[in-house]
Amino acid sequence: MALWWRCALLCGVLALAGCGSQMRQVASNLDMHNPQYQSRECQMALGQVARQDTIRHTRTLASPLALLVGGAPWLLPLLAVNAGLDTVDHLEASDLSVYCGGPEKSNAQIAREVMLGVGFGLGLGK
Fold first, then answer.
1. What gap in Å lies between CA 59 and CA 64, rounded to an integer?
2. Where do the domains of the chain lie?
3. What is the pTM of this model?
4. Distances (CA, A) of 31 to 46, 105, 110
5. Mind spelling out the 3-state secondary structure of 77-124?
6. Is the Cα torsion angle 105, 122, 19, 48 positive or negative in sign?
7. Kindly report the CA angle at 47 between 41 and 52, in degrees rounded to 5?
8. How far is the C-alpha of 21 from the C-alpha of 50, rounded, in Å?
9. Residuewise pLDDT in 10s, the chain (126 residues)
10. Per-residue DSSP letter, 31
């Protein structure tokens, strides 16, 4: 039984290593040769990427634990909190893209991505 738990823990850690925030994904796709990349706004926004990654990893670990402890009554509040944090991540990622010379996402596109993320979290997404 102990071996099973070790394997599950290892798989969980490896899965979390691949989970990056939306800001991390945008930051990795930025054009570093764009003149706006060196701007103060872009560099300050890039400094916030690690914070969003920390929030993403923390809620990835904390949400299932909170649901396990609190049970079914905590499902909707947890979904609401995670959807809110995901929305902030997407909005800040869009701002990062704009500050660094990339395209801006519309609010409708951000809302659609957040809802797909929530649906995927429920097993309803694509």
1. 8
2. 19-121
3. 0.79
4. 13, 17, 22
5. HHHHHHHHHHHHHHHHHHHHHHHCCCCCCCHHHHHHHHHHHHHHHCCC
6. positive
7. 115
8. 9
9. 566 655 554 455 444 444 689 999 999 999 999 999 999 999 999 999 999 999 999 998 998 898 889 988 999 999 999 999 999 999 999 999 999 999 999 999 999 999 888 766 554 444
10. -
